[in-house]
Amino acid sequence: MASEPADGDVHVFERTFTHADVEQFGEVSGDRQAIHTEPDSEGRLVVQGLLTATLPTKIGGDLGVLARSMEFEFLEPVYTGESITCEVTTESVDEREDRYDIACAVVCRRAGETVLNGRFEGLVWKAGQ
């Protein structure tokens, strides 16, 4: 963990998913529906929802969060070649003797349009724990 979590912390990560990302995730997850394997008229694949949800999990991993619960609402499809920006905002931090219990809000956007909303709760161990 880079620093102690605090209410109002905002962390941002941006990624553009590729055909290879969608194909690899399909192999691992078994989600190989036609929308994920057959390009549309513009040559794009639909990115699996849970692959899109790896954006906030990447931020959580960077922060050392051990998730207890996650909730996602998939609002719009995400396509390969699109830049998606994920913003995670810490809504609450409860300090314990050995850890911080945190709750975070998630918003993922494509050119300002929200494609995914969510939240997660978890814990961050204090240094030396």
UniProtKB/TrEMBL annotation:
<dbReference type="GO" id="GO:0006633">
    <property type="term" value="P:fatty acid biosynthetic process"/>
</dbReference>
<feature type="domain" description="MaoC-like">
    <location>
        <begin position="13"/>
        <end position="97"/>
    </location>
</feature>
<protein>
    <submittedName>
        <fullName>Dehydratase</fullName>
    </submittedName>
</protein>
<dbReference type="InterPro" id="IPR050965">
    <property type="entry name" value="UPF0336/Enoyl-CoA_hydratase"/>
</dbReference>
<dbReference type="Pfam" id="PF01575">
    <property type="entry name" value="MaoC_dehydratas"/>
</dbReference>
<dbReference type="GO" id="GO:0019171">
    <property type="term" value="F:(3R)-hydroxyacyl-[acyl-carrier-protein] dehydratase activity"/>
</dbReference>
<dbReference type="InterPro" id="IPR029069">
    <property type="entry name" value="HotDog_dom_sf"/>
</dbReference>
<dbReference type="InterPro" id="IPR002539">
    <property type="entry name" value="MaoC-like_dom"/>
</dbReference>
